[in-house]
Amino acid sequence: MEALEQHVSGLAVSEKTDPVEPFVPAHLAYDKKVLKFIGYFKEDFDRSILTAQSENFRIRFVKIYYYLEVSLVYFYTLPVDSI
After folding, report:
1. How many CA atoms, within 13 angstroms, populate the side-chain half-sphere of residue 49?
2. What is the pLDDT of residue 10?
3. What is the span of the domain harbouring residue 53?
4. In this structure, is the dihedral angle defined by the CA atoms of residues 68, 72, 73 and 75, taken in order, positive or negative?
5. What does the pLDDT look like over 45-73, one tens digit per residue?
6. Helix, strand or coil, per DSSP, at residue 46
7. Please, what is the end-to-end C-alpha distance for the chain in angstroms?
8. Domains in the chain: how many in total?
9. H/E/C letters for each residue in 20-39?
10. Per the confidence metrics, is the pTM higher than 0.85?
């Protein structure tokens, strides 16, 4: 028994230990978290369809939402006034 105590006492024991962070499942970590992107794109028109011949394209604004919990992408285009 004394030999075991001498062997254990000879080991270097660190007083500082890194705290272990608790495991959090992804469905809880990403719950109610959404990434929001705002962007735009150029929408081209055919001149024969348009009522206003001076308009060749429109700039359309979009909002893109990415829901982290379910990996869902939602595109929302903002309405454009007709001329």
Report:
1. 5
2. 58
3. 24-83
4. negative
5. 776 665 556 777 888 999 999 999 899 99
6. coil
7. 95
8. 1
9. CCCCCCHHHHCCCCEEEEEE
10. no
